[in-house]
Amino acid sequence: MWLFLFFLFWTGLMFITGYSVVAGATGRLLFGYDSFGNVCGKKNYPVEGAPLSGQDMTLKKHVFFMNSCSLEVKDGRLVSTTLCVSSCPEEQLHTLEEIQLFAKNNGSFLCVYNLNSANYTQNPHADSLCPRLPVPPSKSFPLFNRCIPQTPECYSLFASVLVNDVDTLHQILSGIMSGRDTILGLCFLSLGLSLAMVFTFRLITTLLVHTFIALVILGLLFVCGVLWWLYYDYTNDFSIALDTERENMTCLLGFAIVSTVLTAVLLVLIFVLRKRMKLAIELLWVTNKAISSSPFLLFQPLWTFAILIFFWVLWVAVLLSLGTAGAAQVIEGGQVEYKPLSGIWYMCWYHLIGLIWTSEFILACQQMTVAGAVVTSYFNRNKNDPPDGPILSSLSILFCYHQGTAVKGSFLITMVRIPRTILVYIYNTLKDKQRSTWARSVFRCCFCCVCYLDKCLRHLNQNAYTTTAINGTDFCTSAKDTLKLLSKNSSHFTSVNCFGNFIIFLGKVLVVCFTVFGGLMAFNYHRVLQVWAIPLLLVTFFAYLVAHSFLSVFDTVLDSLFLCFAVDLETNDGSSEKPYFMDQEFLSFVKRMNKLNNPRAQREENLRNEEGTELRPIVR
Fold first, then answer.
1. CA-to-CA distance for 147 and 272, rounded, in angstroms?
2. pLDDT, tens digit (0-9, with 9 covering 90-100), for 352-387
3. DSSP letters of 581-595?
4. How far apart are CA 464 and CA 480, in angstroms?
């Protein structure tokens, strides 16, 4: 049923993809276009009512602004006339004679197409058909092939309009393109750090954990100090004049405040949970032993990450095509303007739901695969003879029997993410308008509640997937049994399990800290007229995503072991007739843990001796 609904939903996504290919014009966004509807660097088709449209611009790959020193934006679009030219003028042109000579020598015509270059100095309307004098020297920018003026005065005015006043998509892409080499290097740095953290957790010891936590604390304090120092440096830089530079300073302040609060919270948590460290280390040893029975679990995030990257690239390509799907309309002066087609916004929202649901489905498949492999290894009586191919066995069971479970679980997360996205959209839409303190408080409370619900559902889903792997039941039955089981056994070693997850989270924080520090150093010493806070946010997100993709295996294995342990206690009593599935090392760890929680031991014993069980593990 749910798999069929997911198939129907993807049929709609395929329709949107096909529509975007047919109706979209991504070339206008990637290559740029002139004021008459011609895409630069391409052969164009004529637009009815626009006599200067439909020209062959194969050799004219650059977008030239006729009044680049005084650009105007009206209703979110540039009013300035733009042309496709074969090359940008690299020297300043003071007169029409120099523009004419430039056209003769370089074959690049800077006046409107219907004015012959021989008449540049003779036509009485040349002032309105040719660029405003003097024409500043310019160079082609790598994004959209725009001719960017190089004189400080024009550059400042041009950047302040094009970067600050044009749509956000152009601003984000320009920031990314200007620092693309740095971004790529930082992404590889985060990948290397994540792999290093994986091997660190595989070789975890008491001394290593203490060293690791000390590095996390020093890294957080160091990054906070660097952020505040850079903010102080910006506030004392009197050369700041552009909005982009002021935005960089504002973003630095935001980064500094967030990192300071995060550092304070993590330091308090580390201090509170320090007494559980020894048990948490032993629990991670048990986790590593479970991973040793299926060592390829550590490489499982690679294919998940590759599939997600492929899907996200396809999703962005379709979104860009939808954004350029517009009908050409001829306006004053024979110029062409593109109006969005009706229904595009509805398609974009449908496309956004597809992004969330499909991404969550892919992640759910990863969680079910890891949980299935752990369950197969745990509920194996002969620990000296581990099962063959637990990952392949888990994958085959997933695709044959439990795809509907993954679809339903990911759909619940999507239903929480949609209100969260809508709240963010409404907040950003109304942030510049006058709103009362009460309204802002309501928005923040709603957003926090939705985020908390999302977190709880994710934890429930992960345990429900493990229960499905144990019993083979559907999602709702597994979720109900999981809640009953967790409520009975929550006092066993939930705190130790939480601290184990907390150490894994600190590993992700350490990767992000080092990556952000590298980004701060790289971007700060290249203070070009771009909002480098956007690339830094992108790098931060990517670093956390990579670290989460690799270290989430330990999270999933740890939570799966906890649930398997709870099922083992509910099903067996340790006698010769009903021995535990857990090995001796795990059993000795449980005994040491029970000694720590001695006041609760009797109550837990009573729970284990209750008649009936919620779950019956499959003996493998």
1. 58
2. 899 889 988 998 898 889 888 888 888 887 766 777
3. SS-HHHHHHHHHHHH
4. 8
